[in-house]
Amino acid sequence: MDLFHAVIFGIVEGVTEFLPVSSTGHLILTAKILGLSQDNFLKSFDIVIQLGAIASVLVLYWRRFLLDRAALVRVAIAFAPSAVFGLVLYSSVKHLLGSSAVVVWSLLIGGIALIVFELTHTEHSDAEKDVSVLSYRQAAVIGLFQVIAMIPGVSRSAATIIGGMISGLSRRTAVEFSFLLAVPTMAAATGLDLMKNAGSFSGDQTIFLFVGFVVAFCTALASIVLLLRFVRAHTFVSFGIYRIVAALVFLILIL
What we know:
It is built from 12 helices and no strands. It is mainly alpha-helical. It is globular, with a radius of gyration of 17 Å. The protein starts with a helix and ends with a helix. The mean pLDDT is 85.
């Protein structure tokens, strides 16, 4: 890896982290295109630069995290399932990060599922529109959906947004709750990986992590703002189509 690669990965992470297309899957496939092997550092790099995306959420939603205790309680409830499964399945999940096949099939199946969901789901007029007053049951349901996203290529964003809409949230509220839930989820994943691997990073690798972090932060800021505008008038069908096309292209060119 070099600085050019770090910038490319940062852009991919920032653009895709909060879209229902799987940032992890895109990072794995990007490495494949660039001819980089999925060694331990690259797997850690993919996890750690998510801190940049986390920082963008904190900048945009700092009032929620500092002043809205009710929202934080619901985020904590939704985070709990991933915390438990993440600790138990850490080694297995990291092993899957090296599998392009898992990513491609997850993109394909997830794209089909996203389209089917959008074509069959109807948002009711009484759909919950405030993160702070979600029921604990709704928060728990979203948390269980997030566990599915431990499979590379599934998309944490897609899983939590669909889980939120199924449990009775409006589209925009589900998207915003997905943003908030990303903070403890990605912070925990990054912290766990750093505890296990930080001592093995070289000086150059630390610089690559910093560059990836900064680039991911800047691009994630723009991605969040654009997604919130998009969901005001559009469904996620276009993202489902994109996932299917991307999977088929990678299936032909890589596998």
